[in-house]
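Before relying on records like the one below, remember that each one covers exactly one chain. Contacts with other chains, cofactors or solvent are not represented anywhere in the record.
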Amino acid sequence: MLGITWTDPAAKVTGAVEVRTKSAADGNWTPWVPLETDLDGRTETGRAGVRGSTEPLWVGPSNGVEVRINAGGKVSAELPAGLRLDTVDPGRGGSSAAEPAAFAADLPAEDPSATPSTDPVEPVPSEPAAPGDGTETPAEPTPAEPESPAPSEPATEEPTPPASPSPSASPSSSPAETLPPAPPSTVPKPPIVSRAGWGADESISPEAPEYLDGVKAVFVHHTAGSNTYSCADSAAVVRSLYAYHVQSEKWKDIGYNFLVDKCGTVFEGRKGGVDRPVFGAHTYGFNRESAGIAVIGTYTDATAPAAVTTAVARVAAWKLGQYKGDPAGSTVLTAGATGGNYFGTKYSFKQISGHRDGFNTQCPGNMLYGQLKSIRDLAAGPVTGLAVKSVTGAGLSGTTYYTRSAITVGWSASTPSAFVSKYELLVDGRSVATTAGTAASAPATLAVGTHQVQVRATHQSGKVTTSAAATVVAEQTAPTFTTKPNLALRTGTVNTTAVPLTLKWKATDAASLKEVRLTAPVAKTYGPTTTSASHTAKSGVATTWSMKAYDRAGNTATASVAGTPVVVQESSATRSGTWTTRSSSSYLGGKSYSSSSKGASLSWTFTGRSVALVASRATTSGQAYVYVDGVKVSTVDLKSSTTKYRDALWTKSWSSSAKHTVKIVVVATSGRPTITTDGIVYLK
């Protein structure tokens, strides 16, 4: 880490300060990077040796550095005295070094900006500011109507440790062991890496911490450094900031109360105890009633990750909760700055504010500042985006779920789980299960009937959110096959291994039918409105067709039908008239009967519940009458634009198996009198 410092903290560098460093890893120089100089130079003024400074910059392992300042050709006339480059080696914890690397110039003594003034200097408060121009007055953050002076003494310019704790605006510097117990917070404390955890070298800041009467607001900052650091280096970055504040700028300690890296890890800042109202140095003029949280990096153009906003919101909510604060509320702070005669003036602030709300600065960057509302919302609650996402153990039809009884309800919320105290599963408005805020599902057992299922989330603030209801019907009535499965022969090409047939059924359910599955002899699944399907079966083999109906709740019903397709060849028929035997491998059994004699007939008698006439067809094929049990039922035309063999072109089925006779009679159609038949197929 590095930065530029100078002797007089009230002086300014009016030019553009830029640095570049040489990588220790590959020897390459970085591009020129600007250092932010828009700081309040009066930070911790009154302490011996306090220096003015730029913001520090984390540069990673480097072995070379160059600095340039461009002030439009008036460099020597504009640079403050004692200008130097300070570099920081964070070490591995427990020690750090911040030594001047070089002096830029010896400025002319007659240059007022270069010569420290011997005139009396108006006392200024020791309250520090993160990035901001110390020579400018604090920005007025939508000032409220000035309130009447507080009955207690106004904050003094430099906190003076009282002999005993007293309710005044001055912070107390009493030893920690004499302090009363830290007040409990209304919300859980987030994980915080202690100073020992990040390797603070306590020997460089031996002064005892100072304390406030309480914390009325939290100011959010950014450190204005690099965003490219690794989170594994975050502790080193914090050590470097600590060393820079103490050894380069000559502050008593690191200025911020808390620091948050881009991965959401929270680090303890200024010593004194994270659960105490430690007097920090972060927001010029308003340190005496506030805490400061700094996000490591620059968020002028970059949006802070969700891990950052979550961590900042958790710390702010916890700290404000110690003093009955409201993260979504406002409070009145009394200015402790003397600039512009604002000392003692009261201003209204959001209880979670940005640094720029209290001082003329860009901090915490435009993007992070724009995220403060979402940080307040996270910290204050309620839980947002809560919705039922799934009901396991139930089937969904439209917007209604169906189950037998046992379900597991899954949900989601936009609010991170760290802010959720608990979730409750509600059935018809009654809590049936309670889970931790990290959970995303819970089980329930439902009685038969229609239910409204919801999820209720309790934010750590105590605010409650209830999701929209999901309708869940619990029912245990099995589906019904109102039409039992049945088989019928259908038209199509007949082979001894594949006789075409149709499987028919109809299933219903009192609530909601999901599907019907054919489980044997093949596996198929059909939708709730499907009632038939085409299949084939091997001739001469008894086949059982098994079906299972499912409703949305998981109730089932089974049914089956068995059938055997039987091929009866033409040679088994009773003949009349003239028939000629034809031979071809295309015919069933290799042979067929053909006739063009009017009135010639073939008849077959069988016992079954479905029958099909099998014939050969061509463009010259004629017609035939079909009689069933002595009654003419159809005239079939065997003519076809393409030649077909073993074609089942006429079928008839009955509701049950019985003995029937089918007879065909040659019509002797003019110009195409011939018909050729392979016999019949019946289903028994």
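The CA atoms of residues 485 and 626 lie 28 Å apart.
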